[in-house]
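User: Predict the complex.
Assistant: Input components as received:
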Amino acid sequence: MRQIKLLLCILAVTGTVFTTACKKDGLTIRQSAVGLTLTPPAGLQNVRTSNVVLVFKESNSGVDSTFHMNGNTPPAITLPDGSYEVTLEGDVEYELDDVKYSRKIRGHKQGVAVSGGTVTLDIPLFLYDETAGLVFKEIFFTGTVTPEGKQYNGDKYFIIYNNSEDTLYADGLVIAEAAFLSTTKREYDPNVMPEAFTPGAMVMIPGKGTEHPIYPGKQIVVANNAINHKEYNPNSFDLRKSELELTLLGSINVDNPEVPDLVNMNGFMTMHNRGFKSYIVGRLPEGTTIDKYKEENKYTYSYIQTNGTPRYVDGYKFPNSWIIDAVNLSVPAVFEWILTAPELDMGWTYCGKVDSDDGRYGKSVRRAVLSTNPDGRVILKDTNNSTKDFEAEAKPSLMQ
Amino acid sequence: MFSNSKRHSIHLFFTLSLLFIAPAYTIAQQTRGVLSGRLWDKENGRGADSILVIAQKDSLQFRAYSANGGRFSFGPLPSGTYKVSIAGMLFKAPVKTVHLHKDQQVELTVEKALQTLQEVFITASEARGMTSTSVIDRRAMQHLQPSSFTDLLELLPGGRSKDPSLTSMNRIRLREAGAPETDYDISSLGTAFLVDGAPINTTANLQSSSVYIASDPNQYRNTTNRGVDMRTLSTDDIEKVEIVRGIPSVEYGDLTSGLIKIERKKGYTPFTARMKTDGFSKLFALGKGFNVPGQDMSVNVDLGFLDSKSKPTDNFTNYKRINSSIRAEKRWENSYRRLKWSGSFDYATTVDNQRTDPDNGYAPVDKFRSRFNRYVFNTSLKNEVTRLGALVKSWEVNTQVDYQRDRMDVTKWVQARSATILANALTEGEHDATFITPSYAAELLVDGRPLNAFLKAKMNLGFRTSAITHDVKLGLETNYSKNFGKGQIYDLTYPMNPTGSARPRAFDTIPGMLNQSFFAEDMMTFNVGRHKVATAAGLRGMSLLAMDRQYAIANKIYLDPRINTRWTLPGIRTGQHTLMVTLGAGFGLHTKMPTLDMLYPNPKYTDIVQLNFYHNNPDYRKANVATYVADGINYHLKPAVNRKLEFNGDFELNGNRLSLTYFHEKLTSGFRSASRYRVLDYKIYDNASVDAPNLTAPPATSDFDYRDARQFFSYSVTANGSALIKEGIEFQFVSRRLTGINTRFTVNGAWFKTNYVNSFPLYKGISSNVIIDGKQSQYIGVYDYQDGAYRGQLNTNLTVDSYLPVLGLTVSASLQNIWFRMEQYHYNNGTPVQYMGIDGILHPYTKESLEDPNLVWLKETTSGILFQKRLVPIDLQGNVKVTKEFKKKAAVSMFVNRLFTYTPDYVFNNTINRRSGFSSPYFGMELNLNF
């Protein structure tokens, strides 16, 4: 008995020694001062910001540090060392051509390293409009699985929703998938992301301007194949009622004669089923044909592969100013960066928490509801931040 | 009948016998029996001559010498109990006790008493022949502990130890730097493997499933057009391997890169058992060689089993191999000839199994199994004329028939990814089509039955003209290959790859291939003063007979002239020792014929969907497909020809030897798959031309309006477009064994520079992203740049081995170092020289083309950095092997490869390439038993 007590004593003493040692280590968290500069959008005069909320999110710990700022002088900020994602929201007043405007302003910067005592940080600000018209209501990119666990692809779809009070027309809308991957960050040269999106597959909704109306609070479904998928996979659903369908390659280009097809501008919109790519919806300017667009916006970018060899790729630019809505997609475990300028979408959403997650099938990303008007019209949340605007891993709305 | 010298030796024998027997004769008065018998050499199963045999009875000792064929006789001896033994330094034999009371025969098996230490090599040794050749013997193999033939290649100059990869095809690449690329399979296809003189012929191997399955599980196991899969070759029945890296004699043909001569164990061996295990595999081998008593005949039996998996942790993918072999050899000998007959039967089977990882497929159904069964009958007859002065020194006839039963069974759960059109018409034209069944278990059987027959007859002549000794070889070789298999068999309604464009083909519809060759070589040796010169000059002709005249290759004779010469200088005294120098040079052409699959490729199908009317009412659905068939035959295909040039130097001083070889090999006609483009016309039916919502009956295809369309489609053919230019220096230094610790130092290595080039202009279709007026593939570009790269490396392997016979211990450590690896792509500016539009007319690609929004896509962007030389620095690894023998009855060996490594990170284009810390050691051990 005495021996056991002695043993316990020794254990207790060692335990104390170790815990003390741990505490000592924990005490030395380094802090750095952050010198902040905010650069207003170019061309605006007499810019005055107010009610600015700055959120520093430490990427490893997920801890948010929030700072408030009134007026144009940034607050004194001291943060524990780490890697931060900075988001900024606030009000702005400015003058343009002698007219005063009151708008919302935002800023976003990712991968900010805070270490070494003092850090200077410059955040470019941009304006944003809460009352956009057409938005992606839902993107179902994962497909379904059969009872045997095999992938099924034909039932993917986009839903485009009219979030405004006016009737809008889908004619000429361009849906594009990113050429880059949100799971592989690369230094692309040239980096066009601040002014343009780099699409891979691009499709266009046909029509002369008023063939595909979308009434306020209504939607159109753009299906991969507008057929009854239950014939092929009991776990899938019927897409015969879709408004439009994609044109795919060769033998899987199944065409329902009663559903109009989209026009392929570039490649085939097969949709990345792990959700590594972002999507945009936009419109070519009045009078710009597909051929003219391609002629004027082809560019060649390069990046350095991991072994040091550069790789050159031909692609297109899709200017940010033509983009109506954008949704970044990624996977939490392997996310590296967003593929749009932050003013288009400063967040991202997902289906599946790790790469190739089997749990992602049969799930979609759906935009959250902001409010419902007295007339029953649903207003969807569109703050150009998909992290907040979208419900990740949601049940597809067309799945019965 | 006796020749002069024969008579001499017999005289001598009798005189000597009398000398010893006569005294005994006088002492023993009562003669009761004649004691006689034979000595057998354990190693080769032949009679052992010129050995002193002693019969001891108490204090009486009788002696006799063994004569030709190992026969000896003591003549009549007094009856009693004798102990019969042999005396001599070089041989030993167990003592036999004989109770002599009448005439009696005794058989004794003798074996070499001790291999002299200097003869013990655990590395490859450089042969002293006419061209650069590495020789690997039993002891080296035993110390190396191989799982398959692949592992032996570590011992070649430029070789390096590698972990076995037994679940994919193991290809040989001699004298090459750099990784294999599919278009340079001529390396392995052009290396001939000969087992006991007969080739392993892979010409009729068609066992492929590549276009039949979407992600082909056989992809890395496919051996079609790639030569011998070395993982199928067990090493346990091998006595010796000669790897001819240089210019082989014209006796050997249908090869470009090199020649592997495998000689299997013959004659008496103890019963041997071997068990090897490592992280990937388990290997068991049994072997025994018998001498048939009283007959000059031996029988050898070998049995081997290997069970391996792709990763120590992966049970889903595995490979099994069973080898069995029975070989007999019988000799007849008289005073003017030695006749030898050998016959063998081999059976080997290998099984590749792959169950689907439940994470990636549908486990209850998906499976892959590929089995090869090979039966080989070989027989040869060799007659050596021992009569002095005969013109014909020997003749030999060797025949072999080998038959394979290859079966690949694949089952896969196929799920339509969406409604999918089933295009399965077997004829060209427009066909209405259906949609595939939503999901089904698809089955594919690939049935291959290659049969190869081989016949070779050879005659050696010997004569002298003035001071020159001629050894002339004349011979004929016939190889016939045909595949009697039923090919890819599956239900056309349930294809494994519904979106692919494959159709089944029966292999037995493909004609057989008859490859006939002849050869003649004269080896001349003469002395100029104290200089000795040997030159072998020969010519081989090879032809494919009975082929369709459309083929350029048909009925043409391809000639391979080859010459090798060796000049041995008189010894140069340096201090106490003599420096021996031999210089050599060689030049030759080497021709490899295409395989059956290259000459008679699978027809290429192109299916173009013209109508896809997927009505909501299943009864009204309609699909139409235009099917085109291209035979895919390249009638201009020629054999691949390699031109080799080499210089050798061999220096020997006091048992230390340095061998150097410089070689240059130029092969510009290697086989590759080249793209061919053709414009195909098709219709695009307009779904809107039928009033879909108000249909009351199924529409006919003719009810639809259509417009005509055309686009480029590509298919591939085999062409002589791969150039493989190899240059390098091979070196090997072998020290003598230092006395005391019996340690030998071996440094071997090589500097290789290999140029891989596509020697044809390139045709490339425009990016599929480019859609012109709703249509793809409206342009192709013609590029005249040389697509390829230089690759180089310098390596040295330092092996230190100690052979301690007293302790029965062999220890070796090797430091294998690649000093650098180099890679440099050939420059191109990425601009096509011409382009072709859908009209089929070639236009020059000009500055204006670069302005065209579509044509600009044909221009590839390049930059200087792409063509910069990439130097990968040092890559060092240390390996240790130990063998401990217990009274020659058992031996335990173990090895650790990559006990330590040094691979520093390096920078290329400001990017750090991390290499360190990624390797774990590979180790294993084995037990050998001898009874």
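Chain B touches chain A through 52 residues (CB under 8 Å).
Let me know if you want any component modeled separately.
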